[in-house]
């Protein structure tokens, strides 16, 4: 029975005061029963055994009894929180200080005293406060500075091993004083020994030394911007980066080197996590590329990968150089691979963190990577900014031009309505169309007046510098038919370079000589109409002063032989009033308006005003209606 055994062992301690070996054996048996047994530890406290061992540690004159008593106290405190609260007093911390400063105390006794301090402050804010208020933490820092130097003073191998164990215990205790829960006051005190830690990092990369120092530095700097800045100011972050660089050369051959590199990585992360601007210090050591190389190691477990990716994330959070290094070393594809292939939630969050950091600057950095240099001159930087604004400028100018075109078309529509261009009587429209067809295109004055009357409605715009190309239903002159319009003349005067208008045309016959503007003779009334169907672009030219010149073109002469029946001038004059309403003629306003200039809007209105359309223009209207419904 556990309770019976503890009662008998306690009685043995009380009645064996003159036999230190028997007391030591009883103490060893007690901690073996109470170790990791909260119920046994609690019962031992209830029967008064905890306080008796505490008094025994202070009063015994035998060193072996003191050491065994302190070790048993530590085991019981660690096993039961009520025992920790019972012994967590300033009096006990003061007694432990006496053990540490006593010159007669051996290294092993000091190590047992440090162990009791460790279990008193672990997960205990009250213990962290007592260790600071009693001055115990200052004594621990002194041991941190001096104990590790003892082996270099001619101490034996056994003594050096004991000193190292004491130093490791001190490191662990200091870590418990500043962390879990985090204690900023203790962190600010403990950072005073960072210069010593930096010296050891520079002089020794042995795992037995490097691991405790990295743990102490990392926990002391965690979530404390003041401590982080101080560590960077003394060159500690540079030292860690150099250590990582050195370890990475050995990690390919040594698995232990890989594990140690992960420890250093965690320490680096703790030193920059709350102040990502400090990550810029690591850029000159190419830390990000080393971390990516370490991440590809197949021996890493999930937790180690998470730590490495988080460190990469903090390095690239605000530092452009580290972001560039991440891109140059294929870091983004690696993060995406982790994001898509991993099933671990923490690993996915870490990879997402890295991708979010680099999202905003990916485009800018990719342009700089192409130059293989981060030190671009001012002209190149301005060029990058200009490229980023190009799309915005394009849409802005396009919208302005379209707005002006709409205003011009509205004014022209109003003028046409007032002028009675679209008459309801088809006979009047036919006569006007015939008169308009008789205008000599070779006459520059008449030609210029006609080209200035209409502005084609753009369906879509294409921008190139300050010129906008607008698709139109109106046809420009052919390449061998130059037209001296107002828009073209003004564009030449403003030294604007014209962009060729792309065109798509289907020709069934050549254009008659009478329809060329460079011909000196006017066309005859009975000359046949050209048999050409074309779809061209209309060009809008913007000058530097902001003026817009629009070049309009004639409506194409449709193939009347293919779609409309032939009709002579005699038939047209004799049946202008009677046969205009008959379907047998298969004639409409679209067929007889070959010489007029229209845009897509006015031409459609003219066809709609006609009571009877020919088959050709009826198909055109139906196709346009279907297109509008789809839009």
UniProtKB/TrEMBL annotation:
Top-level taxon in the UniProt lineage: Eukaryota
Compositionally biased region (Polar residues): 505-515
Annotated region (Disordered), positions in chain: 472-529
InterPro entries named among the record's database cross-references: ARM-like, ARM-type_fold, TERB1
Gene3D superfamilies named in the record: Leucine-rich Repeat Variant
GO biological processes: homologous chromosome pairing at meiosis; meiotic attachment of telomere to nuclear envelope
Name this polypeptide is given: TERB1 protein
Name of the gene this protein is made from: Terb1
